[in-house]
Design brief:
This protein is α+β, with helices and mostly antiparallel strands. 29% of the residues lie in helices and 34% in strands.
């Protein structure tokens, strides 16, 4: 019994000594890791900027199959957040600063360990250099955990290294897997729509769709306006040199309506037109390749573009339907200039000759 008492006292003294040692250690820490990601900077930034994508690359999520993650309505940009609860603890993170395609700042609380998290994205040879940095102060429990597991730099550093490797692997496939198919001439049927029109940089169009489309769709829901297909954009002008476009963000509706005077959401009607259709399956970063291929096709087929507007894009399958960028579908339509009608000459011949016109596929209204 006396021996057991001594052993117990020894263990107790060891525990107290360890606690005192841990408590007196510096709780402040800084951990930083960098990796070159084989994807364009805009694609990497956009992917990291949405917390819903973190479960695809965050090693603490991929290693814990039972982790419960809760997403609020806003998961992108300033004010976005998410919370999680796993086998090793619970935490929450919130975005406090965003500089488009450049940097992100966040606040994290992991079981009492509070830290500031910083991301930076830089163009470099081979892709994008991503730097992930954390500056924080450890809770007492986290001090003990790190002391027993090799230190905070090793624990968080390994987590960041694995996560960045996952990010590279995921984005390399999702961003760079795409197909472009020129479908040929089709006829788009007329459609009524609600729109918001303004001038935007071409590089910010996709970002603006995430703001404008939900706004118009909410307007429709509040006013019991029935939708009639997928959102689309009309590029009235398209200046690559200046990176500028006059653009209308449109949501198709069943019946024509009139909006009140002074509203920034207006109604419109797109008349039926013939166009060259191209289908892009994959990330939006490949849109220019699809546009170039369409223009090349029109040149080869001697198809004259209609100057009424540059082109139109329909987001048939996007991020709201499926998270995987490699499976997004964007339909692009370049309008053909209507051919002038020529009067038929009266010829006294016993037979008439019919000239076959180019085959034009009839598109169904629900595609719009």
């Amino acid at each position: 019994m006396r021996i057991l008492k001594y052993i117990f006292l020894l263990l107790l003294l060891t525990l107290v000594s360890l606690s005192v040692f841990v408590a007196t250690q510096k709780g402040n820490f800084t951990v930083e890791r960098s990796k070159i990601i084989n994807s364009p900077k805009s694609a990497v930034f956009s992917y990291v900027n949405d917390y819903r994508n973190w479960e695809d690359f965050g090693s603490w999520m991929t290693d814990d199959a039972e982790m419960k993650v809760v997403y609020p309505q806003k998961t992108i940009g300033v004010g976005a957040s998410y919370t999680w609860e796993g086998k090793d603890g619970a935490g929450e993170m919130k975005t406090v600063f965003v500089k488009e395609n450049d940097s992100i700042a966040q606040k994290m609380d992991y079981d009492g360990t509070v830290s500031d998290v910083f991301w930076s994205f830089k163009d470099t040879l081979g892709g994008t250099k991503v730097t992930w940095k954390t500056i924080g102060k450890m809770s007492f429990a986290f001090k003990i955990y790190t002391a027993l597991n090799g230190g905070v730099n090793k624990i968080i550093g390994r987590m960041y290294e694995n996560s960045l490797a996952n990010l590279d692997k995921t984005l390399d496939y999702e961003t760079n897997t795409y197909t472009v198919k020129v479908n040929g001439l089709v006829r788009k049927l007329e459609t009524n729509y609600l729109k918001q029109t303004f001038t935007s940089t071409i590089s910010n169009v996709i970002k603006n769709t995430r703001i404008i489309f939900p706004k118009i769709i909410t307007f429709c829901a509040q006013n019991n306006i029935e939708l009639n297909g997928k959102p689309f954009v009309i590029y009235h002008t398209y200046d690559l040199e200046q990176d500028l476009t006059k653009i209308s963000f449109c949501v198709p509706i069943k019946q024509p309506i009139f909006t009140s005077e002074g509203s920034d959401i207006l109604s419109g009607k797109l008349e039926s037109f013939v166009a060259v259709k191209t289908t892009l399956t994959g990330d939006y970063s490949h849109t220019k390749k699809a546009l170039d291929k369409t223009i090349q096709y029109m040149t080869e087929k001697h198809i004259t573009p209609d100057p009424k507007f540059s082109h139109l894009e329909i987001y048939t399958i996007g991020k709201n339907e499926i998270k995987n960028a490699s499976k997004w579908v964007t339909e692009i339509y370049y309008p053909e200039k209507p051919k002038a009608a020529t009067p038929k000459p009266v010829v006294n011949t016993p037979k008439e000759t019919t000239v076959a016109s180019p085959k034009i596929e009839q598109e169904i209204p629900s595609e719009f």
